[in-house]
Design a protein that fits this description.
345 residues; mainly alpha; 73% helix; globular; disordered N terminus
Length: 345
């Protein structure tokens, strides 16, 4: 398969990897030039890019860990929404008894635990009940939207949200410092998790077993790897990433909760996962690209640089993402056993 793909790329000219390297170099040159011309606006755009990519890459990590194990998860949206809601409620009610410094870490853990529990629920439906995985994800999305809408109470307020932490002298480096080294805790954690999961998937025994279960579960079972156990473990772990993304929305990005506030980020995270070819680093790059387009359209609306209806400017990130996918995405082959029910009997 890999040899055939390489031959096809050679016959059609430039490989996909070469295209991405060229595109990355061009983007870097443009980014530096923009910073030289308008430093304040550039830092604002790049900060917004990193912030808006955070829930997307966390959601993409949730999706790719599940699919690498053979379980398709379209319930990321619901996991993020429910985690955002319960993390916010924890911040409100625990904050009435404890100081903010203790409340926020507990609220983050509540969000992470909520995502993990919904991941466990999806694993139970997919592995034990052998339910269609698409239907299982839809159940989670519908359940989360209904419960959060029903129990939502307007007017709840919190003591505050997670604040940026400057990493000493690193934060004073021109361009790089304000963008990478002056961020909020979950944003830092998301970047670290990208590299941890990348290493784990391709350099550890856990990663080898995960990929084997997603590609050839019967072969993995033959050598003593428990397919149900791996799927339960990984889908639950993946749910924790979606829960962290939900906690980011209410505890770090906004500081409050609104009905359906995820606004399709869970589904965008699936597109980011596909765009990144089922790899954490690729998904992070795709999330940053979407975040950049979103930051640019926000900047255009704030400055009024283009005199067109705001709805058209709001379409910009999605249109540009489709164009980039068409030009650079190529075909992303998912794990062979993704979505398939494994029954050793």
């Amino acid at each position: 398969m890999a040899t055939t793909t390489a031959v096809q790329e050679q016959s059609t000219g430039m490989s996909t990897r070469t295209k991405w390297i060229i595109a990355g170099v061009v983007l870097l040159i443009v980014a530096v030039a923009y910073y030289i011309l308008r430093p304040q606006q550039a830092v604002a755009v790049y900060n917004s890019t990193l912030r808006q990519s955070t829930p997307l890459v966390l959601g993409a990590l949730c999706g790719l860990i599940g699919e690498r194990t053979g379980v398709i998860n379209i319930g990321i949206e619901g996991q993020m929404l429910m985690a955002a809601f319960l993390a916010f409620l924890a911040n409100v009610y625990i904050g009435r008894m404890l100081p903010l410094g203790l409340t926020l870490p507990i609220a983050v853990l509540v969000g992470v635990g909520t995502g993990a529990l919904l991941g466990l629920f999806l694993a139970w439906m997919s592995v034990t009940l052998k339910m269609d995985q698409i239907i299982g994800g839809t159940v989670i999305n519908t359940l989360a939207l209904g419960l959060t809408g029903y129990f939502y109470v307007a007017g709840l307020t919190t003591q505050g949200k997670l604040q940026p932490i400057a990493l000493g002298p690193l934060a004073n480096i021109p361009l790089v410092g304000p963008v990478l080294f002056n961020n909020t805790p979950i944003t830092y954690l998301a970047i670290i998790l990208v590299f941890i999961v990348q290493f784990g998937l391709f350099r550890t025994v856990w990663g080898l077993r995960t990929r084997s279960v997603g590609e050839h579960p019967s072969a993995a079972d033959t050598v003593g790897i428990s397919v149900p156990k791996m799927r339960y473990l990984n889908v639950t772990l993946a749910g924790a990433f979606a829960g962290l993304a939900g906690a980011y929305l209410t505890l770090e990005a906004v500081g409050s909760f609104e009905r359906a506030m995820t606004n399709g980020r869970g589904f965008i995270a699936l597109a980011v996962m596909l765009f990144g070819r089922y790899t954490p680093l690729g998904a992070w790059g795709a999330a940053l690209l979407f975040g950049l387009f979103n930051a640019v359209q926000t900047q255009l609306q704030l400055t009024g640089a283009i005199d067109i209806p705001p709805q058209f400017i709001g379409m910009l990130p999605y249109v540009l993402t489709i164009l980039v996918l068409a030009g650079f995405g190529g075909r992303a082959r998912g794990p062979a056993a993704a979505g398939q029910i494994y029954d050793p009997e």
